[in-house]
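User: Predict structure, ligand tryptophanyl-5'AMP.
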Amino acid sequence: MTSAKKTMLSAIQPSNRLTIGNYLGALKNWVKLQHDYDCIFFSVNLHAITVRQDPAELKEQTYRAIATYLAAGINADEATLFIQSQVPEHAELAWVLNCFTYMGELGRMTQYKDKSAKQGQNIPAGLFSYPTLMAADILLYRTHLVPVGEDQKQHIELTRDIAIRMNNLFGKDLFQIPEVYIPPVGARIMSLQAPTSKMSKSDTDVNASVYLNDTDDQIRKKVKRAVTDSGTEIAYDEEKPGVRNLLNIQSALTGKPIPELVAAYAGKQYGHLKVDTAELVVEAVGPIRNRTDELMKDHGYLEKILAKGAERARTRARTQLKILYDRIGLVNPNG
Ligand code: TYM
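Assistant: Predicted complex:
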């Protein structure tokens, strides 16, 4: 039974369409590791509202994220799948964790610094305390492993710090201390238009990212227009971030080591690298896109999976919250 297995948990923000960065940095690894763990995957819509969202669009993307998990190969019979706002215990635990997290710690988070700088004035408090909600997501389920891309590592380190702090205050076994899993390749896919910046769902330049629902044609165009570097030689070089990015994408998709890929391009042009990369991306994204579209037409099926997942998650989350409330002196809902 799954209960003998350790718990793996991860999530994606439905703040826009998912990208191949989300796929290679996160989702692909969830699929790969899922059979060895008791899995919990969800769509973090409470995180998404830390920046302004269109309500109808947010709802659509929230379901689409779950449909994409399934389309990419997550097994609906084994994993617990739900939408974050369906399990109110996440927001409940986040409040408690806010009371044990320091302003200095939150202010040091790179993602907060980047996002708040873009926001200018009127920075929502939710953007600042975002990592405590993420810590709550993880600590509610006694999670052992959190597979994410490089950019989330700092948030998981903070989660560990908060958990260790509270275990020291209220008992060593209060929270499970989670480990992070960062894939050896694909952990940081870069923008196709500015390859020194991370590929991001929220990039206003649609050519910077391949979305998991782009058509084959759009994918080919975007990869072929990818910004490469001066020179002609295909090398995995610090000074060639554009070429490096395409090689990383290929390596993450095929599992082939970078030196093997580079050797095969000896004497070839950037154009060859782009065409090959485009075809590999089309091959990977096409079936996910088509299956996601089919699933999105079957809302009844998605709702059934989500209702079952939310119920399972709530039972588990409530058990952890009861232990926490007893330890810190909060009266539980049932006394
Ligand atoms: P989000 O929605 O920004 O990204 C989802 C996942 O995709 C990874 N990722 C990337 N990997 C490689 N290259 C990229 N360019 C790239 N862009 C994104 C992210 O590292 C992440 O794994 N705070 C999280 C969501 C979250 C979460 C959690 C994750 C909320 N609660 C609990 C794990 C556990 C986020 O905003 O991810």
